[in-house]
Structure prediction request, 971 residues.
Amino acid sequence: MLTTLLIVVPLAAALVVWVLPLSNESTAGLALLAALAEVGLWAGGARNFDFSSQEPQYSATREWFSDLGISYSVGLYGFQYWLVGLTVVVGAAAIGYAMWAGRDRPRAYYGLLLFLIGSLVGVFASQDLLLFYVFFEAMLIPIYVLVGVWGGPKRVKATLTFVLYTMFGSLLMLASIIAFGITQGTFELAALGTSSNDWIFLGFLVAFFVKAPLLPFHGWLRLTYTEATPEVAAILSGVVSKAAVFGLVWIVLPHFPEPVDDLRGLALVLAAATLAYGSVLAFRQPDIRGVVAYSSMAQMGLIMLGIFSVNDLGLDGAILHSVNHGLVSAGFFLLAGMIEARAGGGEFSRLGGLAKGRPALASVVLILGMFTLAVPGSTNFAGEFAILSGVFQRGWGYAAVGAAAIVLAAMYALRLISAILHDRRASGPDDTSTDLVGGELALVLPLVAILAVLSAWPALVTERSFPLDQPTSFISGQEQAP
Amino acid sequence: MIDTPHVDWLALSPTIALLGASAVALLGAVLVPRTAVRAFSAAITAIGFVVSAVFAGVVFDRSPDPTVLLSETMTRDQLGALAAIILALIGLVVVLVSWSDARRDHVGEYYALLSASAAGMVFIVSASSLLTMFLALEWFSIALYILCALDTHRRESLEAGLKYLIIGSFGSGILLFGCALVYGSTGELGFSAIREATGADDPLFVTGMAMILAGLAFKVSAAPFHMWTPDVYQGAPTPVTAFMAGATKVAALVLTLRILVTAFPEQAEIWSVAVAVLAVASLAIGNLAAIAQRDVKRMLAYSSVSHAGFLLIAIAANSDDGATSLLYYLIPYVAATVGAFAVVAARERELAQPVSLANLAGLGWERPFLGVGMWVFMLSLAGFPLTGGFLGKLFVFSAIYEAGWWWLVVIGVLATALSLAYYLNIVRALYMRSGEVAPGPVVAAGGSPPRDLLLDAAVAAGIVVTIGSFFFVQPLVDLARDAAASLPL
Prediction:
């Protein structure tokens, strides 16, 4: 029931916003209220959540298209709970940012944002393969318009590239889903058995690799993350990319054990290459968003390393790091928006010297930067450490690439910090632009606070992602279900 | 004294209701005062469509088992009844769309021809002999030829009518030739009689079957028999185009399904390959050509060619699931297509010029309701979730996958990816172009016209069906499965 509520509340709020001719202020207020209600519902759900249960919690099932064996079936395991949490928190911050920034045509805008949040929750809560696909595709509808209408100057090109890339991947996945589900006679994830068909496997893999994105499929990344409004970019890099994590952990690994075994090497190499490539590119970018975009790509590569190591450490680390990265990169995109609003653009040539007289801004940038470079003691460090220990068992080379990438991460994060805060340039912002104001701090500080809590207690996520904290046996146990 | 055969008036009632409406509307064109002709004939036609739909519903309810009537000239079954319901509802929506057409002359004739051609379609979906099939095909086609050319002051409309007449007659000729060959080799006209009399290896018989299929492919507008489609869809009055894109497709596809599985089950290996080839050709040509179009009606015409491809895949499956998925797919397809043409009609009336991608710009912001409608229709045609178009494609693909033709699934999926390019282009034009287009040519003709409530109602109906068929898929599939059960599959 709770899961259904989490999906329906934003969708219903979206409908209300679209249909009722509310004033601009009450539209934004209603949207924020719905987003906060989501956070409240999710947090309240923690009380009765049995993290050790072998059954999904708060599950709900309804007949839908019984001729093909498709049902509305949702529910949450631990790792899904954390991903949903990431969604609602980042979603609320994004809506808050939109309120602060002020957007044209607010009824359409907030409705689409809420629709996006609802379908993202649906993606992470699905227990039916086809339902997952429905939400996976449905979230493209708002993204297409959000980027295409409210984005920067090259918005139309950005949105087309993004949608065509993702649709290409996901339509191949549709073919795979049909082949897989029809052969098995059901689409219920728990009831689906395993398949050893490499083609079906590849259909899924490409869709998720585009979404992540991994190396040859990343053509949409830069333009989309740059042209989207900051809050949409925050959701895209922080949350939407995690749909790939969910799909790989909960669809590919349990149902395709043999192909995963056969092609693990390829996936690991791609992931490691993405990590290295993204890190190097992040170091070379001339603007904030570019750095955050490519660092985001690099971190996704790292998460993929964890997933494809298919062992307890790697999987736990991948889930923890998904949450970490989601919060950090969403926070950074929002910050980028705030800084761009002050400097009139995010190019480093316009920035520099912002630390002087702006303690709050300087502190937040510095703290998020420290998380990005995974300073020991931070939750990002815990996540990366778990992933690298996991992947080390698959080959020391991957771990070596990963470790090198941490050094690169330090380089690009420090470069970013100094380019924004120090390095005073003549063309930089003058002293009139203000420090972060209360409203902006209220958006970013909660994200930082959650990161701080996770830093103190990363086991909150790692020990509560899979029943009994046994990811591999849970996932492979799933494959023996009738 | 000659024994008159028993006539099943109920089975004929959906057709008769429409013919009656047509006759009354025609009389009204002469007898009713000029000022009231429009209201009178539109009302009569709308009532005719409603009555026809109700009667078809009764037939559906009372025909759990198919009955062959009048030495197999027609069959009373749930397949025909369901198709008749869909056809009558399309007609009703088209009446709503037509209401504010700025037509001064031939108003009565317009509505009379509309219901006459719908009557032919309602009849053809129950036809089960070569003779009645050809009769009904000509019946609705001739009415459509005239409807296409009814805007006598527009050259494009005349051209469309002429083109459709010539190419349509050519198609009918092929169909008739095929019928003659089949009749010649079997000596039978009724579909099931042909099945029993078949000499399977008779080359004349197989040639006849192929020609019948080709003749029907003209009406389905499947490639390579689609050449008339873009010009005719573009030139015909927009409500007529909506009617053709929706109703003709339903009638022709249901008939194709019926004749292939009833009369030619022994030759299934031959025709299912042929249908698959037609489907692949339609998908390829329809989608590729649609990308290049700038005129919205033309683009939608090619989109209808590509959907003929998806629908033919369902027939190629030659299975119960295939027939069911065809009938289900038709529901959201028809809703989205007719709805899209309704939006085009609204824009056309506003601008008094053909609707292109350029002058569609900003419609989404100026008229939010029509914009949302168009958006929903495009998403459904592109097969996005939360619309029936997605489940239709899914169902068709799973039917053909179960029939063992996995490569058709891959082709269908690639075609869908291709189709996004032009469907999303329309969404882009609706919402993302405002400001870039010079205001010059895009000015409402004679100021902003008042809201057209009936047209809005038609668009609303389209939206409700498009989205409703996603959420309430199972009841509709149950209906479709009942209807498909009346076929010998």
